[in-house]
Hints:
single chain, about 150 residues, alpha+beta, 4-stranded antiparallel sheet, 7 strands, elongated
Amino acid sequence: xxxxxxxxxxxxxxxxxxxxxxxxxxxxxxxxxxxxxxxxxxxxxxxxxxxxxxxxxxxxxxxxxxxxxxxxxxxxxxxxxxxxxxxxxxxxxxxxxxxxxxxxxxxxxxxxxxxxxxxxxxxxxxxxxxxxxxxxxxxxxxxxxx
Length: 146
């Protein structure tokens, strides 16, 4: 399955780690598909960060406004990109540690599962078990459902 996304990029050289973290959270909360910050060397031998935001085209202006409003840049580069993605469905899987949100994608007749990270962490803390143990419980619960 294909779709089209926008990629917003800008170099940040005045952002503190706290500001970068807050910006990342704000962009995700406002609907960005993904946000990442990469260390880069910039002109005049300055250290900085490359902010990359992936979003649906209809979110581009709103997300750009957030970046500009925090005073971190004067310009944002924008690209349109095609993206290949697997069809997926979202389910909630009950395990002894609680309910875990899971995205399930299918490739060549095989299910690939992506548990929600926050749910995994909560289950790990609640049971004092490893990621692999909780992941195995999810796979077993899904097998029993089929």
